[in-house]
Amino acid sequence: MNDPIWLMLVKGVLVFVVLVLLVLFTIWYERRVVAIMQVRPGPNRNGPFGLLQSLADGLKLAFKEDVMPRTADKVVFIAAPVIAVTCAFTAFSVIPFGPEVNVFGVETALQLTDFEVSVLVILACSALGVYGIVLAGWASGSAYSLLGALRAAAQVISYEIALGLAVLAVFFQSQLLSTGAIVEAQAEGLPLTIGSLELTLPGWYFIILAPSFVIFVIAMVGETNRAPFDLPEAESELVAGFATEYSSLKYASFFLAEYVNMVTMSALCVTLFLGGWAAPFPDAWWPAANEGFMPLIWFFAKVLAFLFFYVWLRGTLPRLRYDQFMRLGWKVLVPVSLVWLMVLAAMNIGLDAGNGLTTRIAFAGGAAIVVMALIFFWPSRKQYEEPAEPDAGMGGFPVPPLDLAVPPSPRALKELQPARAAAASDEDAAAATSEKGEA
């Protein structure tokens, strides 16, 4: 891209501002949607419809006391949120918002930058972002934080493989790794002839690569540590996980990085599978729909649809157990992705051999149905075994004592010592009095 320096600076500032505004909106959007699902008002006081609630929460976090544990590694403790935020913002720099437009007499694409391996840059930034989480857990000097960091590392390693395999299918189909070129490759329609009926299907890859699309969506939820895969910061087990010891702006930085990653992964899914900034209808309906700044509307509408999907999952599904989560990644998503890649390669070979596009789409649809059936209906190899002890209502898993008979802490024991000594002396006095009476 041959943009002048001033235009590159303007684009960089605009991308930063758009991401921050999207984060503020997404936080409000999530709270409002979950409130509607739970039949309650949600934020509705600060600003119209409560739109300024996210800004108020951000200012509140900024003015809170900044606390650092004595056992923390100060340099790494401070650097961890910076790494997380930097990787999150960098990944969004190669996402295309629209076609080429005229800005102050300069023809430029609605994209900060693009090159031949842009998709790999996003995957690399997503993988490097976990270093911020891992270093935060290690540098905090807390068992809860360390457990959250270990979970995050295992989670990213597991689901990064499935995510990469889904992207590899897009590369097989388009022979491209540039985000802008992938969007342009999906602009061509797919002619389909059924008897005397001639149709033109959208060239979006979520139709041709349906299994890859489903795998990518599941993996991106696991990659961004969102419910039901929010195990690195499971508040029911690990307080706040890797962020337990953070406060003020450092905690807000992790919050910002999480929501920026949500927006980035949603934008990447739109770019790879849903035509990017292209309008969701044929050009013949509205020839100017994909010209000028109009594609910005289609792009952000698709991104908001995926953000709603994130919120829908959070308001609907319970958190998975960690063993279930790992099993889904390693025993379902990765094997299915590998099988689907082989099927896709066979389809491409068959198309090169002269088979029609109708045959290919039918084959792809049948393969997608078979793959989904294997995912949801594959029988478990482990047979159910009756527990040796009576089930306590939790499926035989170890649970804390239901009567909450937790031994007192050392401080509580120290505070109870005077009272116990007084009670013991009273008992001794009562015993001595009774002995005198008997005598």
TrEMBL record:
> Entry's Pfam families?
NADHdh (PF00146)
High-level lineage: Bacteria, Bacillati, Actinomycetota, Actinomycetes, Glycomycetales
**Name of the encoding gene:** nuoH
The topology of this chain with respect to the membrane is: Multi-pass membrane protein
User: Where does the sequence pass through the membrane?
Assistant: 6-29, 75-97, 117-140, 161-183, 203-222, 259-280, 292-312, 332-351, 357-378
**A cellular component annotation (GO) from this entry:** plasma membrane
> HAMAP family given for it?
NDH1_NuoH
Q: Its quaternary structure?
A: NDH-1 is composed of 14 different subunits. Subunits NuoA, H, J, K, L, M, N constitute the membrane sector of the complex.
Record's protein name? NADH-quinone oxidoreductase subunit H
Q: Which family does it belong to?
A: Belongs to the complex I subunit 1 family.
